[in-house]
Amino acid sequence: MPDLVFDRPKHILSAGQFDRPFLDYIYELTNTIRKYDKSKDGLQYLQSLLTHRRAMLYFTQPSTRTFMSFQAACHILGMKPSEIRDSSTSSERKGESIEDSLRTFASYVDLIIMRSPVAGLSDRMACLLDETPRPVPIINAGSGPDEHPTQSILDIYTLQRSFKSASAIENKTICMVGDLKRGRTIRSLSRLLTNYPGVKLLFVSPPEFKIEDDLRQFLLKSKISFDETTNFLDAIGTADAIYMTRVQDEYDLGLGDSKRVDTSKYALKYQHLPLLKQECVIMHPLPRRSELDPAIDIDPRAKYWRQERNGMWTRVALITILMGVDQHIVLPRL
Question: Can you give the pLDDT at residue 183?
Fold first, then answer.
């Protein structure tokens, strides 16, 4: 297990805060945690690490996988999380600001994991709580259309596991397909992939859903190779990994704008499988719609169900780092 050679984060807010040493450490730490789960003694040891700590799941945007994987991660580490799933059940219904509500919650817990449709809320709360007598770590579990850093961590981990090592992502071609304009998973993963020399990104989408200019400028500044295209079939044939995404129509604001965009040419079908490289990795952050054919599930290149489960384990690893118990895990106890 490598030594800790990066600055320990106070919060998990953005994919931009992670460098290559951190990503390599998370890869090794998560693999070690998974070994503990293989025995009763190992699992009981994990459950003993944070029994004295409390967490809150503040999820005011719909979520299934992210919520349940964080909830499970807390249980694995012995934390019993409380939760808010609907702000209408809190004092926000009475007119209290989100900031005041979350500062109240921070009085009761040691960690806040939050998903919100409000872009930048987790960053604002981290800054606010850092100035209070009782600061607590914040984990951004999704903020509007801008960031989803823990999803990008599990995506990198899935690529590393699929390619058999942490360094094997280097020099690979990663193809991202779908609503790239509003897909926060795309934004976060693209930022993380700049840590791997030789990576090439292929962005495939209708013109209406192409990447935003801020991400484009970031990639240019990072000197990572990338192309944008509308040619789905040509792109998937050159890819070492394909990252499919759904249309993010929850950001249409009731106007139905997404329905006016023809996305039928950007769906991965079972009949496309012969076009792919033999070792291509197929990923999707889920939930899926028609952009990913369920018939593909049986193909050994389909990694999205493993990807989903990897989320729980990488989030266990992230929580141990924030709460300062990761060094207890790397000791040879099993």
Answer: 86
Peptide bond into 206 cis (omega under 30): no
Task: Please tell me whether residues 132 and 254 are part of one structural domain.
Answer: no
Residue 2 within a domain: no
Burial tier of 31 (Cβ tally within 10 Å: 0-12, 13-18, 19+): middle
Residue 216 belongs to a domain: yes
Same domain, 213 and 130: no
Q: Using one digit for the tens of pLDDT, what is the confidence trace for 155-169? A: 999 999 999 877 899
- Looking at the domain assignment, is residue 94 inside a domain? yes
pLDDT tens per residue, range 286-315: 999 999 999 999 999 999 999 999 999 999
Backbone angles phi, psi at 184, to 5 degrees: -65, -25
Q: By C-alpha distance, which of 215, 65, 238 is closest to 154?
A: 65
**Structure-derived torsion over alpha carbons of residues 194, 198, 203, 204, reported in degrees to the nearest 10:** -150
Same domain assignment for residues 68 and 191: no
Residue 80 structural domain: 15-147+311-329
40-47 and 20-36 helices, crossing angle to 10°: 120
Local structure of residue 303 (DSSP, 8 states): -
Strand order across the beta sheet in which 138-143 lies: 82-84, 55-59, 111-116, 138-143
